UniProtKB/TrEMBL annotation:
Residues 12-123 form the YheO-like domain. The lineage of its organism: Bacteria, Bacillati, Bacillota, Bacilli, Bacillales. InterPro entries: DauR-like (IPR039446), DauR-like_HTH (IPR039445), YheO (IPR013559). It comes from Domibacillus mangrovi. PANTHER family: TRANSCRIPTIONAL REGULATOR DAUR. This is Transcriptional regulator. Residues 154-213 form the Transcriptional regulator DauR-like HTH domain.
Amino acid sequence: MSLLNEENTKILHSYIPIADMIVATFGSNCEVVIHDVRNVQSSLIYIKGTVTGREIGAPTTEVILKELRRYGDDVKDMLGFTARTRDGKFLKTSTSFIRSHEGKVIGFLGINFDVTAFAMVNQIIGEFSVTHDLDQIDRTMNESYAKNIEEVFENLIENTLIDIHVPINKMSREDKIYFVNQLDEKGAFLIQGSVDRITEVLGVSKQTIYNYLEESRTET
């Protein structure tokens, strides 16, 4: 390990006492994670709590991949969002990005607080009130909190196909370029081996994928 990598690893590990403190304060409904985004395929290096059921070595989430792809080292912290998991939980989440001494994003600390019970109580109260307003619940971001990178990739493919409303076997060349563009914007190409995976999905060559990617980036 180089001195620079060792220093960055120390920076990430320095957040472990903070993670422990947060969970100790807010209890079993709270989970805190530390991710090392130098390896998005297996970025989870520390987890305290069991809200999302992940383990050490889990990948970076789709939402974070998208933010990193869009903003790079200028990415802003994401504070006080509501997320809905695939198993139906509502989470109040916050993400704070961790930077090296040179200002490069090397990881992030995330807090996930399970507010499912609060949301259900709020819904029941709302049904008996004059002002039935569940906007806070409806305006959520879906997040899978995948346990491995294959699951992340499958979710990216599935959600992108839903977005473009065209089955793979019916895609024109323009559809495929748009499909690649949408995956690119979601950060799919930050995943090692993504070109090979997308090649299999679309049934084209790797060079074709690179051509689609170059063309879509030129157009945007």
